[in-house]
Amino acid sequence: MSYKCSRCKRDVQIDEYGGVRCPYCGHRVLLKERSRDVKEVGVN
Amino acid sequence: MELRVTESTENELSIEIAGEDHTFMNVLKGTLLEHDDITAATYDVNPEQSGGQTEPILTIKTVEGVDPLEALEEAAADVRGKTTAFRDAFEAAA
Amino acid sequence: MTAEYDVEFVEREDRDARFLVRGVTPAFANGIRRAMVADVPTMAIDTVRFVENSSVMFDEQLALRLGLVPLTTPPEGEFVEDDTVTLSIDVEGPATAYSGDLVSSDDLVQPADDNVPIIELKDGQRLEAEADAVLERGKNHAKHQGGVAVGYRHLQRVSVVDDLPEFEEQESQIVRGVIEDDGELVPTSEFDHDLSNRYPGKQVEVEDVPNAFVFRVETDGSFTVEELVTRAVDSIEARATELEDAVQL
């Protein structure tokens, strides 16, 4: 799961035991990014 | 188009015409009624939400000595004649 | 029984026409109308693969918009149901993504109009997607409906009965469609749909001409009006042939 730190804008991997915290700047607000996969959608 | 006869006697025929709707059934019924030896022609369809019978059922009654199945075949040929005539007339104008 | 039909065009453009058919029964006229709306297949986008969508709308919303873009439908026989054509789109903001930005893999299947807006993209937003178009019928989804405004009206015959009494105020008499005046076909728009404009000081009688219908047909650009009408008639004919064959067995 990839996140982005809302303060320093760096990509962050969440460590299950480390809690929600940016390892670079210590900021506690992380934004979840859209997956880079191709998404297939049907027209309904 | 799948056909299933639900009732059949000498001069009366009920037949299920699977996969069709008013578009074709009404044209067919109208064409059947143009024949003098067909005394009655009708069809019945139920909406999809009703459950049960949803395919149209066509019922034909004919005068004595006329096979309703043959009358149906003739009417189908008539519809084809109409479409051909319509296309010719339309293309002549276009 | 052989039917005698007579067709005459009143107004005519590629996508929009009005024509009179004489000798047609109401049942058959309605069959043709219904076939034009629901039974003539057209191409439309059915699946979209989003590579990137950083716009303000959800993938599903954009997929629906892409699906509703009219695409030109190739001539009969060129395609069958289940064939697909791939179209791609790649637009980066600031810009508006239009239907004209769709790039098709097949020359025969193109957006019918180039100016259908899909989404406005702001600075830094981007839409990149690939879509599959399929041939289907209007019965299954409105995006496959080739005829968008299809209907008919009776041809109306107008005849002058008498002069209006000298001191009587003429009332307006509204009719819509096409009238027949002494064999001449006149669209009612020519006199603002008001018979008192065309026949001032006259008393007129209006009657429906039996079995004469004026069709008004407009297509979404998938094909011309002529194509739509002939394909609709073909679809009814195909069913009649199928029934005839099935009964013979």
TrEMBL record, chain A:
Name assigned to this protein: DNA-directed RNA polymerase subunit Rpo12
SMART domains according to UniProt: RPOLCX
Subunit structure: Part of the RNA polymerase complex.
Gene3D superfamilies assigned to the protein according to its UniProt record, in alphabetical order: RNA polymerase ii, chain L
Cellular-component GO terms for this entry: cytoplasm; DNA-directed RNA polymerase complex
Biological role: DNA-dependent RNA polymerase (RNAP) catalyzes the transcription of DNA into RNA using the four ribonucleoside triphosphates as substrates.
Positions annotated to bind Zn(2+): C8, C22, C25
Any one GO molecular function term: DNA-directed RNA polymerase activity
Cofactor binding annotation: Binds 1 zinc ion.
Enzyme class of the recorded protein, top EC level: transferase
InterPro entries hit by this protein: RNAP_P/RPABC4, RPABC4/Spt4, Rpo12
Catalytically driven reaction(s): RNA(n) + a ribonucleoside 5'-triphosphate = RNA(n+1) + diphosphate
Biological-process GO terms, alphabetical: DNA-templated transcription
Family, per entry: Belongs to the archaeal Rpo12/eukaryotic RPC10 RNA polymerase subunit family.
Keywords: Cytoplasm, DNA-directed RNA polymerase, Metal-binding, Nucleotidyltransferase, Transcription, Transferase, Zinc
Cofactor(s) it depends on: Zn(2+)
Subcellular locations according to the entry: Cytoplasm
EC nos: 2.7.7.6
Listed HAMAP family: RNApol_arch_Rpo12 (MF_00615)
From TrEMBL, chain B:
Compartments in which it is found: Cytoplasm
Domain of life the protein comes from: Archaea
GO CC annotations, alphabetized: cytoplasm; DNA-directed RNA polymerase complex
Reaction equation(s) it catalyzes: RNA(n) + a ribonucleoside 5'-triphosphate = RNA(n+1) + diphosphate
Classification via Pfam families: RNA_pol_L_2
Stored InterPro entries: RBP11-like, RBP11-like_dimer, Rpo11-like
Keyword tags: Cytoplasm, DNA-directed RNA polymerase, Nucleotidyltransferase, Transcription, Transferase
EC number: 2.7.7.6
GO molecular function: DNA-directed RNA polymerase activity; protein dimerization activity
A GO biological process held by the record: DNA-templated transcription
Role played: DNA-dependent RNA polymerase (RNAP) catalyzes the transcription of DNA into RNA using the four ribonucleoside triphosphates as substrates.
NCBIfam families given in the database record: PRK01146.1-5
Self-association and partners: Part of the RNA polymerase complex.
Name of the protein in its database record: DNA-directed RNA polymerase subunit Rpo11
From TrEMBL, chain C:
GO-annotated biological processes: DNA-templated transcription
Catalytic activity reported: RNA(n) + a ribonucleoside 5'-triphosphate = RNA(n+1) + diphosphate
GO MF, one example: DNA binding
Keyword Transcription: yes
Domain DNA-directed RNA polymerase RpoA/D/Rpb3-type as annotated: residue spans: 16-246
Cellular compartments per GO CC: cytoplasm; DNA-directed RNA polymerase complex
Subcellular location: Cytoplasm
Enzyme Commission number(s): 2.7.7.6
Keyword terms: Cytoplasm, DNA-directed RNA polymerase, Nucleotidyltransferase, Transcription, Transferase
Chief location: cytoplasm
Coiled coil region boundaries: none
PROSITE patterns: RNA_POL_D_30KD
Pfam families membership: RNA_pol_A_bac, RNA_pol_L
Protein family per UniProt: Belongs to the archaeal Rpo3/eukaryotic RPB3 RNA polymerase subunit family.
Described purpose of this protein according to its UniProt entry: DNA-dependent RNA polymerase (RNAP) catalyzes the transcription of DNA into RNA using the four ribonucleoside triphosphates as substrates.
Subunit structure, as described in the record: Part of the RNA polymerase complex.
Name of the protein in question: DNA-directed RNA polymerase subunit Rpo3
Provenance organism: Natronorubrum texcoconense
Source organism phylogeny: Archaea, Methanobacteriati, Methanobacteriota, Stenosarchaea group, Halobacteria
